[in-house]
Amino acid sequence: MTSKEKFLAMVSKEETKTIEGAKGRIARKNYTRLSQKIALSILIRLDELGWKQVTLAEKMKVKPQQVNKWVKGRENFTIETLASLSEVLGFDLITVSNDQDAPSSQLIQL
User: Fold this and answer.
1) Could you read off the pLDDT of 85-103 as tens digits, one per residue?
2) Distance between CA atoms of residues 24 and 91, nearest Å
3) pLDDT exceeds 70 at position 12
4) Which end of the chain is more exposed for a tag (fewer CB within 10 A), N or C?
5) pLDDT in tens, 41-58
6) Which is nearest to 53 in space by CA: 37, 69, 38?
7) Ranges of each domain in the chain
8) Range list of β-strands (E), the chain
9) CATH 3.30.300.30 corresponds to the domain 20-109
10) DSSP H or E run through 31
11) For residues 102 and 109, what is the distance between their CA atoms, to the nearest angstrom?
């Protein structure tokens, strides 16, 4: 048996979804970057306030595991969650410009 035949015998016959997965990660890149920025903002604010994640969880009335998801930067935040976090932490996580002349790409600032 040749090396090529041995290799082909070892390789799975099942179709993989590697390419689709890579394309999905690329498509989520901007979302991930924004989520990580929000997470970093939360961590910095917790440090400024001298709070632990569990303190934020208590104030937000969520489980500590939820706060842990937020600060890992992989959470799909809702507007409601961001507004609640902003209120509890005492600073804006999202600002929306009222400037009608601003390009639409600059209306939401994180």
Assistant:
1) 999 999 999 888 776 665 5
2) 32
3) no
4) N
5) 999 999 999 999 999 999
6) 69
7) 20-109
8) 95-96, 108-109
9) no
10) helix 29-49
11) 12
